[in-house]
Fold this sequence. Notes:
Strand order of the largest sheet: 1-2
Mean pLDDT: 83
Helix content: 55-70%
CATH superfamily of the largest domain: Cytochrome Bc1 Complex, Chain C
Distance between the termini: 75 Å
Shape: globular
CATH class of the largest domain: Mainly Alpha
Order of helices and strands: HEHHHHHHHEHHHHHHH
Structural class: mainly alpha
Strand content: under 5%
Oligomer: single chain
Amino acid sequence: MLFYRKSSSVVIKSSFFKTQLWNHIFKYPTPLNLNYFWNFGSLAGICLAIQLFTGIFLNMYYVSDASMAFNSVEYIMREVNYGWVFRYIHANGASIFFLVVYIHIGRALYFRSYTSSLFLWYSGIAIYALMMATAFLGYVLPWGQMSFWGATVITGILGALPVIGEFLVVWIWGDSNVSMITLYRFLVLHYVLAFAIVGLSLLHLIFLHKSGSTRPFKSNYYIEYIPFYPNFITKDSIGFLALALIFSFFVCFNPNDLGHPDNYIMANSLVTPAHIVPEWYFLPLYAVLRSIESKVLGVAVMGAIILSVALIPLYDNLKIDNPNARTITKIIFWIWVATWIALGFFGSQPLQYPYITVQRSLVCFYFVVISFFISFYNYIDKQTLKILINTK
């Protein structure tokens, strides 16, 4: 009798799990007019799974010792069966992951998907912040020249914070400088934050299913909803195949194009690289930091840039159903994107004239654009909508 009760509870739990899986994945109601820009959420989940799987494999052979870390990576590349594949997938996967997330965030801004749920938006921003931290920690682990000096420069910037700055830097390093203790701490944090991203991603998915997927343009209130399976699983599969082609191109033909050649030189604290360049997804913020001479002001401006994007839903709460009313704000959005890309490009250039002058100009212009983008978003769309109504 006891066995019967125990088995019944297992059956009930299994049935509950299957029901939830069926309702929230296969039967999830999805607007019929979603385009391929709505694929990038699921593609980001696939990228996260790839990074976790390859990261666990690499950690089996990696040695978090300053004298052995670089050689352990070389051992993975040269001696472990298919180790080079896992290493290149993990290294290039970080770049592709960020590309997918940037497009995902851009789509939310362009189509104003953030108006559906603040919890959904801010959980996504939290995931992005954790991604930045995790990627930085992972970039240090190979212990090449660019890894070592990137860690020294970026963590040293925290010393500019008032009162707690110097204490914070020493606490992160675990020593008076970047050393073996720092490397071990970064490995542990890299691992922990990766699984924190998984938890936040599940929370993000819960908020999505609670608020429902937004539509490209809400021009029809009675638009048809269809089950996620098999319609959008098929569409996501096409996106996954495109992602697999991009992965294959970089891993098999250009595995080092997204990295820096100096990172194939073992870290040396006595030799400073001529030009310290982080990964491309850090470049826009890196351009802001180095274009401002004051470290405190540089950190403040960088924080303001991230905060300005995070706060957009609090300023823009107007729901417009006519896509033609957004012509001007679309133009502002693309100018904003172009400015961000330009900051990334000049962030990769040497810190000399005329690059530094252009960088500072772009930082000032960025704040003009983003301020205009936030402050007058509602006003511009309201006026455009009035003109459209009056012309009719």
